[in-house]
């Protein structure tokens, strides 16, 4: 494969030329939300300027164009993820996707005596919906724990997969530790025991080649805004048999074939789950994002980010009093850390004044913070558009503000 000119790639992202507080922006918060290349911004702009109409309703030219653009995005996503387009429900993001499974799949099926298995490293989006289901059905939640490195305790997880377990929901990649879970092996094991699996792919889809079919899960959720697409876009992939069997989650227009007061005939999946006017422009943008990522190549993106991660890990490890959380076997480009004697928020606030954008807090992962016995960490998350020079500047900035705080 031809070498990529990463400086040119970076130049595709308009926001990265910004200054904040008089300093060049160093954006290290891509796990929170990713920046957008010009092609995505232009696709959204072009949609509103030239094609704007509602989908699946009007026979006029613009209506047809809008429908083709929206369904075209579904097709691009299907190819990108290696699944069937009619198994992709387009929605507002991972949070909605997981809630859809919770309400449409789990709620009617689970009852007292059933169990759901989660892991200690889940984002709240993959915890709270299951707690709501558990409260309403009487099912219980069991938690797979982590080892010292921040990897899943696979033996412990296996031991949890007992006959009362109906669902295993776990993240593909941890948004805090960067841990890449062996979801293929885990889902295969669960499937052998008749347990349905949901994988939260929010932090995987933007960073590595994805083949959902090969993972062999039942549900895969992801969010568009972390993978160079607009906010308010996301995808739930589900096996067709589940989509056929599940009742709709949200009712309204677009999701029906015929409505009578005596009873309504729902549309076929995936449309059955897409009530109301969708985020059409958002998905046009997400389609453009998929084109952009595909042209770069996810394997190249993964290699680039791995190199940046190794470099950043070495640079941060050299800083006095800095502790990195987790050292999993396979790790995505996320570094959670604390500096001895400095509060996470203070550090992040002072780094902001240096132009460095990182996140501080619990990262929507309270149970993981409880595991490490800290209320918060700082988190630097990298993307392919970051540079080695930015990491040098980031490390120098930590060293500078550390002296102010400690
Ligand atoms: N799961 C994980 C692992 C995440 O990192 C995030 C976003 N931080 C979510 C779920 C939720 O995604 P969204 O807010 O886009 O629904």
TrEMBL record:
Enzyme Commission code: 2.8.1.7
UniProt KW Kinase keyword: no
GO MF terms, alphabetically ordered: cysteine desulfurase activity; pyridoxal phosphate binding
Keyword list, A-Z: Pyridoxal phosphate, Transferase
Reactions accelerated catalytically: (sulfur carrier)-H + L-cysteine = (sulfur carrier)-SH + L-alanine
Alphabetical GO biological process terms: cysteine metabolic process
Residue span(s) of domain Aminotransferase class V: 26-394
Task of the protein: Catalyzes the removal of elemental sulfur and selenium atoms from L-cysteine, L-cystine, L-selenocysteine, and L-selenocystine to produce L-alanine.
Family indicated by similarity: Belongs to the class-V pyridoxal-phosphate-dependent aminotransferase family. Csd subfamily.
Name of the protein this chain belongs to: Cysteine desulfurase
Natural source organism: Marilutibacter maris
């Amino acid at each position: 494969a031809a070498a990529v000119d990463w400086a040119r790639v970076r130049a595709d992202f308009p926001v990265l030329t910004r200054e904040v507080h008089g300093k060049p922006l160093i954006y290290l918060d891509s796990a929170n939300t990713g920046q957008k290349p010009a092609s995505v911004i232009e696709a959204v702009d072009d949609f509103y300027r030239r094609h704007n109409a509602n989908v699946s309703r009007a026979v006029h030219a613009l209506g047809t164009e809008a429908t083709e653009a929206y369904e075209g995005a579904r097709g691009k996503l299907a190819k990108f993820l290696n699944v069937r387009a009619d198994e992709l429900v387009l929605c507002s993001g991972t949070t909605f996707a997981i809630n859809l499974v919770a309400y449409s799949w789990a709620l009617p099926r689970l009852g007292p005596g059933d169990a759901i298995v989660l892991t200690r490293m889940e984002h709240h989006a993959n915890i709270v919906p299951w707690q709501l289901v558990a409260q309403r059905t009487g099912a219980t939640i069991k938690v797979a724990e982590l080892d010292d490195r921040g990897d899943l305790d696979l033996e412990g997880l296996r031991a949890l997969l007992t006959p009362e377990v109906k669902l295993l929901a776990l993240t593909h990649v941890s948004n805090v530790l960067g841990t890449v879970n062996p979801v293929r092996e885990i889902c295969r094991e669960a499937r052998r025991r008749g347990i349905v699996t949901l994988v939260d792919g929010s932090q995987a889809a933007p960073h590595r080649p994805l083949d959902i079919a090969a993972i062999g899960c039942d549900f895969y959720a992801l969010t568009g805004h972390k993978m160079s697409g607009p906010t308010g876009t996301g995808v739930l992939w589900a096996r067709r048999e589940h989509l056929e069997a599940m009742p709709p989650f949200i009712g309204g227009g677009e999701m029906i074939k015929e409505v009578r007061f005596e009873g309504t005939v729902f549309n076929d999946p995936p449309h059955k789950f897409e009530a109301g006017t969708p985020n059409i422009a958002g998905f046009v943008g997400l389609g453009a994002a998929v084109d952009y990522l595909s042209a770069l190549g996810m394997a190249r993106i993964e290699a680039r980010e791995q190199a940046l991660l190794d470099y950043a890990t070495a640079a941060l490890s050299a800083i006095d009093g800095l502790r990195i959380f987790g050292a999993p076997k396979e790790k995505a480009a996320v570094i959670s850390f604390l500096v001895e004697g400095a509060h996470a928020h203070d550090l992040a606030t002072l780094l902001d004044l240096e132009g460095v954008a990182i996140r501080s807090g619990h990262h929507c992962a309270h149970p993981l913070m409880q595991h490490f016995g800290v209320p918060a960490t700082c988190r630097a998350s990298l993307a392919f558009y970051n540079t080695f020079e930015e990491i040098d500047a980031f490390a120098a900035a930590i060293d500078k503000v550390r002296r102010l705080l400690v």
